[in-house]
Design a protein that fits this description.
- The structure is a single chain.
- The chain is an alpha+beta fold.
- Helices cover 23% and strands 44% of the residues.
- The chain is built from 3 helices and 7 strands.
- It has helices at residues 9-18, 55-69, 137-145; strands at residues 4-5, 24-27, 39-46, 71-84, 87-100, 105-117, 120-129.
- Strands 1, 2, 3, 4, 5, 6 and 7 form a 7-stranded antiparallel β-sheet that branches.
- 21% of the residues are buried.
Length: 149
């Protein structure tokens, strides 16, 4: 994240300050990798004010934030109901241009899932190139199909 260049520098600084390490993180290629490395991350967050909220609405909360910070933002798949690990969940997909600190940029796709569980929720994010040159969303789907939450 420190190499990602967002259009809102203040938000980027806050994100770096308050983000926590993911519960699980994996990438396809060993780092350093000189392109967009397909990745999957799982965070666990307290539901707090979102307790009892439809997970689609939780994802919807993030859309305006992403619109502000990601260049060429496009909501490809609006939040929709799904299942993940046998649990009710929500899913959405966005495309954007990911700019990094060395001046390069990559056409990126992010997929996000919200899976409520008790007083917490799993926030699962996967990132790939839009053209899938370095790894496919099908590979991400295979990983997710093996998950038990």
């Amino acid at each position: 994240m420190k190499n990602v260049k967002l259009s809102d520098n203040e938000f980027h600084q806050l994100m770096m300050k308050y983000s926590n390490a993911p519960f699980v993180a994996m990438m396809k290629h060993p780092e350093p990798f000189d392109d967009l490395n397909p990745s999957l991350k799982i965070n666990i967050k307290p539901l707090g004010q979102f307790k009892g909220t439809d997970p689609k609405h939780i994802l919807g909360f993030f859309v305006p934030q992403f619109q502000k910070i990601f260049q060429d933002f496009k909501l490809v798949q609006p939040p929709m109901d799904t299942k993940l690990g046998g649990l009710a969940a929500a899913y959405m997909r966005i495309n954007f241009t990911l700019a990094i600190s060395d001046g390069r940029s990559f056409p990126a796709t992010s997929e996000l899932w919200i899976v409520p569980r008790g007083d917490y929720f799993f926030m699962i994010g996967a990132g790939t190139r839009q053209d899938e040159e370095t790894g496919s969303r099908e590979e991400i789907a295979e990983i997710l199909s093996s998950m038990v939450l």
